[in-house]
What we know:
The protein has 311 residues and is α/β, with parallel strands linked by helices. It has helices spanning 3-9, 13-46, 61-65, 67-76, 92-104, 124-140, 166-187, 211-218, 231-247, 274-288, 302-309; strands at 52-57, 81-85, 108-113, 149-152, 191-196, 221-225, 251-257, 294-300. The longest helix is centred in the N-terminal third of the chain and has 34 residues, at 13-46. The radius of gyration is 26 Å and the shape is globular. It starts with a helix and ends with a helix.
Amino acid sequence: xxxxxxxxxxxSARVIKRYTRFRHKRWTTLILLLCFFAVTPLLFYSAxxxxxxxxxxxxxxxxxxxxxxxxxxxxxxQVNLIFVQISTDVREVEYRQFIRKAHEAGIDVHALKGSPxxxxxxxxxxxxxxxxxxxxxxxQAGPKEQFTGVHxxxxxxxxxxWKGDQSRIVREWSHNxxxxxxxxxxxxxxxxxxxPFWLHRIEASEGGxxxxxxxxxxxxxxxxxxYRDHSDSIYDxxxxxLAEAESANKKxxxxxxxxxxxxxxxxxxxxxxxxxxxxHLQEVGRQSVDHxxxxxxxxxxxRAWYEKVNP
Length: 311
């Protein structure tokens, strides 16, 4: 081939420049896409996309005596779900007024109740009556005055006979939960429950898996009481049940403790600063956000939280 022929097939400077620009744009686009996929989960978490931030409210009279205070504090701290204990000291009209205000602030309210004794066969009716009360209340309340779910706090491991008669207690508790689940489903109620972080180690009374797995298959959600004073420890306690919930295609909340306790300082953020608590709460979310089963956090409890921020 002559020099002239070679020159005729050699790309021009303009073509080389265009090709170089194309390659540069292609690599730039690829890098931007990789960055996008790397940071998108964090962006969704920081924006709170569909993440729940819940809290327990045990002193029910608070919603009657100072409802605006409860809602203002909750909203300021990005709470979008409150578990309110049901008490006969608060009238139905007062529940309606509070829930209406909460909904206007973007906060859902679940009816909360339970006790260790509810795991016993002779206490099944108490749980059933609670769920029926919520169902009847919702039938009479306006759409913006209704409880959006029920939340059970039954902790049978606090019973005196737990260590010596665990199998029987688990069997009766499971039987009671089956009845309560049926009542909630019949009423169209979302139903969730508090569970300890170690529940996956307890065998279901029907066999074939863990008790936490049995509950995850049946309840809409569970809240893990992963009470520790450091994000790493909290995540370590929650990770097994996050995996179980993922298999069951369910969302779970990770609960943290702010109140005083006689179980040790490592169980609660009570003696820590507000900044320390908030930093570790955010870190729990960052560590857990890659789990599809992670639904958010729950702070126990609202009064302790309020007094921590307003000493």
